[in-house]
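Is N-carbamoyl-L-aspartate placement plausible here? Inputs below.
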Amino acid sequence: MQFVGAHILSVDQFDRSDIERIFAVADDLRPYATRSRVTRVLQGAILSNMFFEPSTRTRISFGSAFNLLGGEVRETTEVKASSLAKGESLHDTARVLSGYSDVIVMRHPEAGSVEEFAQASRVPVLNAGDGPNEHPSQALLDLYTIKQEMAGHGKGIDGLRIALIGDLRYGRAVHSLCKLLGHYDDIAYHLVSPPELEIPPGIADGLAAKRHRVLSFHELEAGIHNVDILYVTRTQEERFPNQDEADRYRGLFRLNQAVYTQHCEPNTVIMHPLPRDSRSAAQELDEDLDENPNLAIFRQTDNGVIVRMALFALVLDVAGGVHDHSQPVTWFTAKRTPGSA
Ligand code: NCD
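Reply from A.M.:
I modeled the complex. Tokens:
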């Protein structure tokens, strides 16, 4: 694809060479993300970081990524703090904000809303999650992490065996990751969910049509054998018609060290897009796994910054100029080792 000036709305936009281009730029940006060098390549540029749904890591990492390239960030964090609460259309909001910024990142509770917004924007728009639909930057950082973890096991992405566990119906991170992995060869998907929370049939059919192996499971223990990656997800409570219905699924699948030891291959990598639900009734990913070296959740979050930097660099066409505007960091920086949890 042509990255310069593009909206990033869905992983369907990418082919394998696009993904590899993003990852190559991300690798090149590592010294800036790990604070050994600073760059001012986006000095003067403004990001509007528009989050109309709760977010911690996606919002802060997009903002930090832009700052780390030398740009400035403006933010709105709630519908009620924006003019959408006064009845303004997405069209008008997009037209206005695109006059104030060079790029816009947006999260919104409605599927398709970010695309509608992008149509009225004069600057590139990056989808940070549109309801239950897609979360492209999360899928990219997850795949970048998978690539690193598999390299540590002497493997690549082709032939990967992955179990996706939990709310696969409403989980947009799962939707985007499944489709993104579909660009590789011979992926085995173990889709582990309650029957009512299976992945949308269109996504499963698309993977099967590409000759990947797609197996469904309704019990955790049955689905986590013989895989390289466990990708655990939270019940997306906010997407259910009511709280009672969401509560039916809380705590149904719980991965902990005992379950892992009994059912998983040694060194199976454990991932989660986060946040994990640590309330006692949920705990889909138990904190007793925190000492397990195969727990990659904070390697994922660290990679979120670097992958989002790469997206900005490509869309704003500065990937080639980053080092020309750089210098060593002069302040104290805490040690950041790529391999640490
Ligand atoms: C995910 C999301 O918002 O879809 N979170 C994130 O961006 N890391 C997953 C979730 O909220 O469960």
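Short version: Residues 57-58, 129, 135, 138, 172-173, 233-234, 236, 273-274 surround N-carbamoyl-L-aspartate (CB under 6 Å).
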